[in-house]
Amino acid sequence: MTSAHAESVNGSLPHEPEKATLEGRNKVLGFWLFLGGESVLFGTLFATFLALRNQTNDGPTAHELFSLPTTAAATLILLVSSLTSVFAVQALHRHKVAALRLWLIITVILGLGFLGLEIYEFHEYVTAEKFGMTTSAFSSAFYTLVGFHGAHVAFGVCWIGILIGQLYKKGLTVVTAPKVYVSAMYWHFIDVVWVFIFSVVYLLGKVG
């Protein structure tokens, strides 16, 4: 079996990075288990939000509060970032390190754009709408769910940013390749969660 300090892409890196080493396979398996736990946690937050979404305590309602154009723009940015992460994995399989780094950098930029819109949205709610964390049970559930997802996006941006640095320093090896694959899994997960947030929180709130 190839050791953890094996050659870079110019050597014998296999086409399926998650199968490169036993360590790589264990990382992927362990990460699937982690995503399972995260799914349960987000499911709990969704259930709490749905139970409390009408408890406004005379504060702004979802229909009065939400601006769909801003949220739709954030959704589009995050969905495009999911596509760029796919392109990164394709570049990984083709052993094109420069293209891999480029697509990861674009993914990080798009992730930062999403976070910028979310921070702007929260700022507008707090300052213009007087809709804070403690305004009502609805506001608490909203900020907990959406903010928790935003924290996941911020973590993903930092993670991929560190990975880009490792690719510049070490190149594509049987150590760095599984990290790219796992980070792409994580990014797709937070994209899927956002689709549910956009549908359940924003669209349902606006039409409701």
Automatic annotation (TrEMBL):
Species for this entry: Paenibacillus rhizosphaerae
Broad class of the protein's primary localization: membrane
BP GO terms, sorted: aerobic electron transport chain
PANTHER family linked: CYTOCHROME C OXIDASE SUBUNIT 3, CYTOCHROME C OXIDASE SUBUNIT III
GO cellular component, one term: plasma membrane
UniProt membrane topology term: Multi-pass membrane protein
Transmembrane parts of this sequence: 29-52, 72-92, 99-120, 140-164, 185-205
Gene Ontology molecular function, alphabetical: cytochrome-c oxidase activity
Family: Belongs to the cytochrome c oxidase subunit 3 family.
Name of the protein in its database record: Cytochrome (Ubi)quinol oxidase subunit III
Domain Heme-copper oxidase subunit III family profile: 29-206
InterPro entries referenced in this protein's UniProt entry, alphabetically: Cyt_c/ubiquinol_Oxase_su3, Cyt_c_oxidase-like_su3, Cyt_c_oxidase_su3-like_sf, Cyt_c_oxidase_su3_a-hlx, Ubiquinol_oxase_su3_dom
Keyword vocabulary terms for this entry: Cell membrane, Membrane, Transmembrane, Transmembrane helix
Localisation: Cell membrane
